[in-house]
Write a structure and sequence with these properties.
This protein is of the alpha+beta class. It is built from 19 helices and 43 strands. It is 27% helix and 26% strand. The strands form eleven sheets. It has a ten-stranded antiparallel β-sheet, with helices on one face. The protein binds beta-D-glucopyranose (BGC) and 1-deoxynojirimycin.
Length: 814
């Protein structure tokens, strides 16, 4: 069952039924001002940091799930009937409804009682505000007298405090109203230098800024007293809950259409220019007024929207493919790339499953996200890398996360995840291969943001690598620390009290438990670092890295191979985890995927064997589960993983993030059919038909799909913010389609299904546009290349001479 359809031409997903199984959302904004918006206009906005600069309030885990947002009410002033064109919150039976989620904008339109209303929500590039462009059309044969009400609820900036500290917060709310613009200025009189504004393009008949005055006692957003009455009370919030609502009254002739624009924005003032007049407590609104006036003009709003369209066309245009599979095309060309930009901007901080107050930008996550977006915004990737590495600790270890506003690392979600440092090497490698910008390695970057501790970025990579060598366990494998990629495999935690955090509690000294996963990661990162060293002319250093890698590979063979698959770890007692010796959790996906993608066991058949075991024991029609058999009870020595009921999350859920590791592994052993098959099983577009089972958005990846042990097998959860986005993008574009960046140019190494006759692609790389055509002439993956009509040996397309902006590549597969 479906709830809408893909409009690929317009790069939109069109939802045709408002009561989707879960809110299906989109993101507004791509620089500093951001919003989340659902298909019923639910969601919220913030400036840079979803925790520290929350502009509007949203209550998570509500009933209905999604309540609170950018609501508009229409009221027929003749009959007194009112409704919301986004269906929520009044839930009228609309005659037509559609929500178009597009690239950086969402348009929600509907028809009720002969009145069409359509609101387009977006954030203009370069501005800290959002525009709601509402078009109302009277389709009735007679004139209509309508009232329009806008509504938002302000958050008192710090979203965490806002949701907990009521004894203070009910007394501090403050607003100003001037020329019909509602200004929210809680705490501005004391230490804040920022305020929000909410403006309307029409002359207003009234306003409300106190929630209780707008809604009325014991009423909700579905039935505001002001809307029912057709009259606001011009309330001014003093404490309690500041809101913003404009009331506009308009007359429509039959067939007449009119546009009303609302602008909601964020503004900072220099500390010495906060007030106007300077000795008053009144906000200095000079800059805000200019920007408000600009975007209340329809022409300017349209122009800003056009610019946004061009921006996304250009970004997505950097890599476009034309394969025999519509789901591949749609995800690569539109949605997967778009989701990669969302994970870049949000990391794991703000979605409908991540409250924006829990996690800032993760070190591990953000480095991996680079794989998916570095080709689109290389300049911002550079900045991200430098920010991340500035939070690295002198030991080479890392804070697990940092707040985007302060860019300072913190231990709020624990520390000592021993895989963290290696992801920096992987991220920097991806950046170098994409851009060829070797200068980044010489950038002075501090440790732990401490002034005076600056060392070239390259040294940070060296310390990352050494971090593991200085932390080897009894078998010579890397010590796991708090956890590795799998946050829930907590082998040093031994938590026995309810509510104890698996992320921050450590009851063991951590000298025994080892991770085979980190060993695989070490192999990949070590090879990457050796390549980087070689390109810097450090041949001896490169050799030393490769020697350590070889040693680690030997250790994996000796202590990390279980006979038919790779072991997962050793626990604090030195016992195997993820082995046939275990009663439950005998085989884990992480090591099968990561060791094979890193190239461990390619020569001696271990990789092929591990992938076969994965196929036999872990694959389901909905994707590959994380481990089997699922843990049926709590194992204190394993930690959070066994705290989840079987089939969910890390306990044998289909954790989509690591499916692409197996996919890449399959390409490394030349199995294009299996690689694309696994790719398709979790491809959201390919799952659109089973939206009633999948339940999350069919246009973006979710972190998890319930595994075969779960009663709801196939049900997705935690959509949008997941490493799945970057890894799948990387797997399909660079490994299956095989258009792979390297330090010396673009490699062409497709490992596609046997049934494909070929495919075409355009890829912009280091300023040059490559038109690539791949044709099958045999069943294998052997590539012969023609570049600009001339055959060349090997599969590396050399960079063209300077000035040459296009290259035609023809690849024949045999
Ligand atoms: C989740 C993990 C997540 C971790 C973040 C756990 O509860 O299961 O997926 O990475 O929290 O701190
Ligand atoms: C989600 C976290 O964001 C990520 O860092 C982690 O690797 C996975 N969960 C697996 O636990």
């Amino acid at each position: 069952m479906k709830y809408g359809y893909f409009d690929d031409q317009n790069r939109e997903y069109v939802i045709t039924q408002p009561n989707t199984p879960l809110p299906w959302i989109n993101y507004l904004g791509c620089e500093a001002y951001f919003g989340l918006i659902s298909n019923t206009a639910g969601g919220y906005s913030f400036y840079r940091d979803a925790r520290l600069r929350r502009i509007t309030r949203y209550r998570y885990n509500n009933a209905p799930f999604d309540l609170g947002g950018r609501y508009i009410y229409l009221r027929d002033d003749t009959s007194g009937e009112f409704w919301s064109p986004s269906w929520q919150p009044t839930q009228h039976k609309l005659e037509q409804y559609s929500c178009r989620h597009g690239m950086g904008y969402t348009t929600i339109g509907s028809k009720y009682s002969g009145i069409e209303a359509c609101a387009r929500y977006f954030v203009p590039l370069g501005e800290n505000l959002e525009i709601w462009q509402l078009t109302v059309t009277n389709d009735r044969p007679q004139a209509a007298e309508l009232s329009i009400f806008s509504s938002i609820e302000f958050c008192l900036w710090d979203a965490q405090d806002d949701s907990a500290n009521f004894q203070r917060n009910f007394s501090i709310g403050q607003v100003e109203i001037e020329d019909g613009v509602i200004y929210h200025k809680t705490e501005y009189r004391e230490r804040r230098d920022h305020f929000a504004f909410f403006a309307c393009s029409e002359k207003i008949a009234g306003y409300d800024t106190q929630r209780d005055a707008f809604l009325g006692p014991y009423r909700g957003w579905d039935n505001p007293a002001a809307v029912e009455r057709g009259l606001c009370s011009n309330s001014v919030a003093h404490g309690w809950a500041p809101v913003g609502s404009h009331h506009v009254k308009l007359s429509f002739k039959p067939g007449e259409s009119r546009q009303v624009i609302f602008v909601l924005g964020y503004q900072e003032n220099p500390r010495d220019q906060k007030f106007d007049p300077p000795d008053s407590q009144i906000i200095n609104k000079k800059t805000a007024k200019t920007v408000i006036a600009k975007y209340l003009a329809a022409g300017n709003a349209d122009a800003a929207f056009e610019k946004l369209r061009v921006y996304w066309s250009e970004l997505l245009g950097l890599c476009q493919v034309d394969t025999p599979d519509v789901h591949t095309n749609r995800m690569v060309n539109i949605w997967n790339a778009y989701q990669c930009m969302a994970t870049f901007n949000m990391s794991r901080s703000a979605s409908f499953y991540e409250s924006g107050i829990g996690r800032g930008l993760g070190f591990r996550d953000s480095n991996q996200d680079l794989l998916g977006f570095v080709h689109m915004v290389p300049g911002r990737a550079r900045e991200r890398i430098l920010d991340l590495s500035a939070t690295q600790l002198p030991t080479g270890g890392a804070y697990h996360q940092y707040q985007p506003l302060t860019k300072r690392g913190n231990d709020d979600v624990g520390s000592g995840f021993n895989d963290d440092p290696h992801w920096l090497i992987i991220g920097v490698g991806a950046y170098l291969k994409e851009t060829g910008d070797w200068s980044i390695l010489d950038e002075p970057v501090p440790y732990d943001n401490a002034p005076g501790s600056e060392r070239p970025l390259y040294e940070h990579l060296q310390r990352s690598f050494r971090y593991t060598l200085e932390r080897l366990g009894p078998h010579g494998l890397p010590l796991i620390g708090r956890a590795d990629w799998n946050d829930c495999l907590n082998l040093n935690c031994f938590s026995d009290s309810p509510g104890q955090s698996f992320q921050t509690t450590t009851n063991k000294d951590g000298k025994v438990a080892e991770s085979v996963f980190i060993a695989g990661l070490f192999v990949l990162a070590g090879c990457e670092l050796a390549d980087i060293a070689r390109h810097r002319g450090l041949a001896a250093e490169a050799c030393s890295y490769l020697a350590e890698v070889a040693k680690m590979e030997a250790t994996i063979r000796q202590h990390g191979w279980d006979g038919e698959w790779f072991v997962r770890a050793y626990d604090d007692f030195g016992r195997k985890v993820g082995s046939k010796e275990n009663a439950e959790g005998k085989i884990f996906i992480e090591t099968q995927g990561f060791c094979t993608l890193a190239g461990v066991g390619l020569e001696d058949g271990l990789a092929v064997r591990a992938l076969e075991s994965t196929r036999q024991l872990l694959a389901t029609k909905h994707g590959i589960v994380l481990q089997q058999p699922a843990y049926s009870k709590y194992y204190i020595e394993l930690g959070e993983i066994s705290s989840y009921p079987p089939g969910y999350k890390e306990n044998a859920g289909i954790f989509c993030h690591n499916n692409p590791w197996v996919i890449i592994g399959e390409t490394r052993v030349g199995n294009g059919d299996a690689a694309h098959d696994f790719y398709t099983r979790i491809n959201p577009s390919a799952r659109e038909e089973i939206s009633d089972v999948h339940r999350c958005e069919p246009y973006v990846y979710s972190q998890m799909i319930a595994g075969r042990d779960a009663p709801t097998h196939g049900e997705a959860k935690n959509s949008w913010l997941t490493g799945t986005a970057a890894w799948n993008y990387y797997a399909i574009t660079q490994w299956i389609l095989g258009i792979r960046t390297s330090y010396d140019g673009l490699l062409i190494a497709p490992v596609i299904p046997k049934s494909w006759r070929g495919f075409k692609a355009t890829r912009k790389f280091r300023g040059v546009t490559y038109s690539i055509e791949v044709q099958r002439a045999g069943d294998g993956n052997q590539v012969s290349l023609e570049v600009n009509g001339a055959p060349i040996p090997g599969n590396l397309v050399p960079l063209p001479p300077p000035g040459n902006k296009t290259v035609a590549v023809k690849a024949t597969l045999r």
